[in-house]
Design brief:
mainly alpha; elongated; single chain; about 260 residues
């Protein structure tokens, strides 16, 4: 499958889709996987790995084609997979950007999309799919993807890993308010979110506001993150990248740590 992708020939997708459809339609195997956890650990992982290879291949071979057979395959298996796999969402977004973003867009005057708001879908994979649309040539698609990602970050009680993925996806759009969004999440209670926010801030312009926020975040992390050093290290890296001289006070504090 990977070798076929390397040929960069869209015609190869037509050879992959029949086997992909066979995998996606084999509901009995999926049912066995769900009922027998022992099988799930072995057979199902192999089954899913092949599926994800196919999904990734289709996304790379058929960008912006709206290929109906490929979309049917992706839609079928995302239901089986309960929207868990970013590979599937990314492939869908590549093949049919407008159709993908429309799934999560809210009807006019009806607030935000119920498909995410009802919390039945894990926003982490969806966030990564939406992030892929930062490369879209359709300004309307990009604008809607940005809006949905911002609503994920601001309004919904999603898992910390999903917040982190949504931040990364939102950063791909290089929005005017990105710096402020990152600074807000630099004070998040979770270390993973703060780590990612710091890493993304390292790619922003160096400014007094960013340096002060990072130093403050470092002090908080150093005093409060007793079991995880991810945020502390990410903040030090960001400070060093933005302004080496301003990193010195935090480095002196870090040197007193018992964490080797």
């Amino acid at each position: 499958i990977r070798a076929l992708v390397s040929l960069k020939d869209a015609g190869a997708a037509e050879k992959i889709i029949p086997s992909a459809t066979e995998i996606a339609s084999n509901w009995s195997k999926v049912k066995v996987c769900e009922e027998d956890w022992k099988i799930k650990q072995t057979y199902c992982n192999e089954f899913k790995s092949e599926y994800l290879e196919i999904a990734t291949a289709l996304g790379r071979l058929l960008p912006n084609t709206n290929n109906e057979r490929a979309i049917t395959f992706l839609e079928t298996f995302r239901e089986i997979d309960h929207y868990q796999s970013p590979e599937n969402e990314i492939a869908f977004a590549r093949i049919a950007p407008a159709k993908y973003v429309k799934e999560f867009a809210a009807p006019p005057n009806e607030g935000d999309s119920q498909i995410i708001k009802n919390n039945h879908l894990p926003p982490s994979a969806i966030a990564q799919g939406l992030g892929e649309l930062a490369n879209s040539s359709d300004d309307k698609v990009k604008a809607e993807a940005k809006r949905i990602l911002k609503s994920l970050l601001n309004e919904y009680p999603i898992h910390n890993y999903a917040v982190s993925d949504a931040l990364t996806a939102y950063a791909a759009f290089k929005t005017d308010d990105l710096n402020q969004v990152l600074l807000k999440h630099l004070t998040h209670k979770d270390t993973i979110v703060r780590s990612n926010a710091a890493g993304l801030l390292a790619n922003q312009p160096s400014s007094k506001e960013n340096i002060e926020a990072l130093n403050k975040a470092f002090n908080y992390s150093f005093l409060n993150d007793k079991h995880d050093n991810d945020a502390t290290l990410a903040i030090l890296d960001a400070l060093f990248k933005l302004d080496k001289k301003e990193t010195i006070p935090s480095l002196f504090i870090a040197a007193t740590s018992r964490d080797y």
